[in-house]
Model the fold of this input.
Amino acid sequence: IVRADVKKLGVLLGDHNLYSLTPSQKFFQVERTFIHPHFNVPSPLNNDVALMKLPQIMSFSRYIAPICLPHPDVHQFVATLPDVSDIPRPQTTELPYYSTSVPLAHPVLHDLMVYRNVSVFGWGTIDDAGTLGTKLRGVSVQILNNQQCDWYYGLMTSTMFCSSGSGGHGPCQGDSGSPAQLL
Done:
């Protein structure tokens, strides 16, 4: 999340390539931002989400669409999940206990989401040198067990999930807080 003067913020919708203009793109100045009050608390990247209010109504199109959010009721959300009982579970090894002393993922929801595939999207860097991608990128990843990730990275909290893609593919640096869509 960038903490910048709202007068300097804008949103470019319908964009897929940073270096080409198309009629599908619409630019809006930002009227107001709403950054999660507990961003970076109690650990880095926790609650990495913000909303921006636009000063005018925006129309959806073939290139601009809303992000579909899950049902807020846990039981109704769970009822919409596809069956994954036939998904092979990877072999795991027992890890020594380690924790960042922050609560881990919601026990019911996280257990239901582990090993499911999601698509993640973003404009983050595409290599270790920090090169920015020119096109919106996406990849399918599998949600992993948060306790394992907490042991390796020490950052996991109840508002996060950990993922890994095949062949080492995954979200890019700078993509935290970007959309993840259940497949």
Remarks:
- The domain at 67-80+106-182 is CATH 2.40.10.10 (Thrombin, subunit H).
